[in-house]
Amino acid sequence: MQYISTRGSAPALDFEGVTLAGLANDGGLYIPAEWPRFSEGEIAAMAGLPYAELAARIMTPFIGDSLSQDKLRELCAAAYGRFSHAAVTPLKQFDEQQWLLELFHGPTLAFKDVALQMLGLLFETFLSRSNDHLTIVGATSGDTGSAAIDAVAGRERIDIFMLHPSGRVSDVQRRQMTTVLAPNVHNIAIDGSFDDAQAMVKRMFGDSEMNGRFRITAVNSINWARLMAQVVYYFAAALQLGAPQRKVAFSVPTGNFGDVFAGYVAAKMGLPIERLIVATNVNDILHRALSDGDYSAGSVTPTAAPSMDIQVSSNFERLLFDCGGRDGTALGEQMRAFEQSKAMQLTNSQREGASGLFTSTRAGADDMASAMRWASDHCGEIIDPHTAIGLYAARSTELAKNIPVVTLATAHPAKFSDAVERATGMRPALPSRVGDLFAREERFDELPGDYDAVADYVAQRATESR
Ligand SMILES: *Cc1c(COP(=O)(O)O)cnc(C)c1O
């Protein structure tokens, strides 16, 4: 399997290459040169497989020769063995039509564990082959940082530097990062906003002196391997609801468009998906893009669903590439113009290509709270604010009665207990496996919002690349 860039000029790479590279060197994102496809019979034969076994089957065509079958099975068993639920991503029923897919049973209680647990193992496997060392640099407003730290803590060939805006992440989110005391984990509280931290990380990716010394990479969802791992749970849920004979719809609380793009990939691979509902909060650039072709970024409004408070959705570029005829040169020009003006119109072919599978909904604060109350009052389920936006969108989308709709539950409600308590009057408790979080020792360094201070800090602690 070869991967090509959405902007047409970076070299094609194999799976090992795209996993270690992250972003393509022409500024684009990597995507498979062609979509692998399973027959109806092959999909039917996957029903009832244990999650790790299903994961290995779905990932095999994407991995090509980069891993042996035995090694792939071993990594899937290790990654998904760390989940606290034997089904890994259990499916629950709300009513005749509405279902909930719980993706938060990993170590840090958000769906990002599903992909990052696997990515950490892939990094380690590939780095030990080349005897190289990786320096992960990231900025987080919460969930990505803790999931990435958990996935790589204690690994010899990786150092991780995670910047968070000082005083602006929740106590649970901060402690999930800062109580990991492994020597390769470096938490930095930046005196500034998330955008300031993010800008410093972007600057470091373009800093030729730093890149000359260190192999610097990202762990956000621009990394193809993360999306690949997320395709698996679309299959897992649909198979339980009667696929391939029966079509299924999904409602996905969306920020960077990574999770819902994985659903699009599942459809390309032959899974019969009726609809993918893109659920946004008031930061609704994706809703505007999908409903009237207007992809223009405003400023971010903070909400109770902070992981969806995003104006520019990196992975949308992958959809525009695939739906718009896979013309990397044209898309490169379109994206560079967008980076200048922060606004663009989708082309007709991009709009038509997307409208076949996607619909979108925007949920305000009241919509979100009412969905939390409905789940609690009618089904006895406490859901988090992100999931509530997905459920609101699922319940307000017109679909035939025989199509089940699966809302992806992206975070455990205890991660956002204040917002849950405000809406439902109930305060969800942290699961016992993370229950001593508030008793553990914390370790992090505070740095001013100054690029040189951060670059010096990284340079003094990271290991040089070969
Ligand atoms: C990251 C995140 C999202 C958004 O996922 P994308 O792949 O960026 O669209 C939604 N909910 C939660 C809880 C998250 O952590």
TrEMBL record:
Protein name, UniProt field: Threonine synthase
Pfam families, per the entry: THR4_C (PF24857), Thr_synth_N (PF14821)
Positions of modified residues (N6-(pyridoxal phosphate)lysine): K112
GO molecular function, a single term: threonine synthase activity
Keywords, in A-Z order: Amino-acid biosynthesis, Lyase, Pyridoxal phosphate
Reactions mediated catalytically: O-phospho-L-homoserine + H2O = L-threonine + phosphate
Pathway assigned in UniProt: Amino-acid biosynthesis
